[in-house]
Description:
Elements: H1 7-10, H2 40-50, H3 72-85, E1 89-93, H4 96-107, E2 113-117, H5 122-131, E3 138-142, H6 148-157, E4 164-170, H7 182-190, E5 200-204, H8 209-212, E6 222-226, E7 240-244, H9 246-259, H10 265-276, H11 278-297, E8 302-306, H12 316-324, E9 331-336, H13 340-349, E10 354-355, E11 365-367, H14 379-384, E12 391-395, H15 401-413, H16 419-422
Parallel strand pairs: 2-3, 2-4, 4-5, 5-6, 10-11
Antiparallel strand pairs: 1-7, 6-7, 8-9, 9-12, 11-12
Helix pairs in contact: 3-10, 6-7, 11-15, 13-15
Bound molecules: pyridoxal-5'-phosphate.
Amino acid sequence: MKKSMKPESLMMSYGYKPELSEGAIKCPIFLTSTFVFKSAEEGKAYFELAYGKREKLPGEEMGLIYSRINNPDLEILENRLRLWDGADDCAVFESGMSAISTVLLEFLKPGDLLLYSSPTYGGTDHFINHFLPKIGVHTVGFTSEMDAQEITDAIKATGHADRLQHVHLETPANPTNSLIDIEMVRSVVDQFSRADEPVTVAVDNTYMGPLWQHPLKHGADLVMYSATKYIGGHSDLIAGAVLGNADLMLRVKTLRTFLGNMASPHTGWMLLRSLETLKIRMEAMQANAQKVAAFLNDHPKVASIKYLGLIEEGTRNYDIYKRQCAGPGAMVSFLIKGGEPEAFKFLNSLQLVKLAVSLGGTESLAEHPKSMTHAGVDDEHLEHIGVTDALVRLSIGVEHHEDLIWDISQALDAVTIPENAMA
Ligand SMILES: *Cc1c(COP(=O)(O)O)cnc(C)c1O
């Protein structure tokens, strides 16, 4: 075999041995709760490894024990997901939220301080602001406008800088596409690291999928996904994933074993199938999104557009984008001229694009962040981060771009912009 094949070349075969499954070219769904040991000695050896009681012997492989701990569909999926981010190890979860909450629970303990970027996904925001304080974890948020000094000051102002332990980043942020400089945050928090307990940095990379941004290469320790989105890609499942180095992933996987929030074999199998087309789906979506964004950018009823492909050159955001992202992605947000009535008229007039939350699926979706995905965020903060009544978010799918633009165009035609908003 050629040494360094690209991930897309390996998604159909990597880590699967047909001879172990009657020669089936595709990995079967291993709908089984438990696995038969060849001998009591073998069962004992597997448990010794599972509980970290001893190191693996040369050439020894961990065997299958019980589907909460390991299952062939999940192991093969994890090995394939590793390839995209160049990670040592991966753990798949039953949802993006379970991936994120498991990481927060593993790397924070009572008295610790969490630094997080804002805006962040609504569910994550809720967990950070409503659950973590109940177990005595302190939290401090920062926005994409803040520089290294301002973030440092914000950490110190909490009075818990000596307990800074973990960082949760989401970039580009949902729904505004605002960017966080991962390397900059890494260097800020390293000032607070202690030799015995270094600060860990985790990035929610859902918006860029595993194709357009690789946070581990920019100083992150862990990368997390809602696999419900681009990785699953067909709007037919809920799942999550975490990737990182072997030591950190051992901690994540151990907590997963005891929370029992791993994905099911069936979901694992669905994701294996999705991974075969990950790259071509994402590239088709991105090519469509670039065309849709260009159309919206020139439209008289559009006040402004938030798309990575249209960031002005020479700005700080452009610099971060060029360093951190391999492409502009397929999430396009825009401000319609007017407010909620105009945004709603547009959404209600779409025919091909579906009115639904979620993103990254083959079909294009549209939604109103302020009243839907971000309804839980307080009003003042929404204004501050640019989530207004006029904001519409689009997730662009794999349809023909001419049909998408026709649909968006006719929906905009149906909107009457009030005189005072037209200027
Ligand atoms: C959807 C989403 C999540 C949550 O994932 P689920 O699979 O719905 O649990 C987390 N972060 C981002 C950025 C998301 O878009």
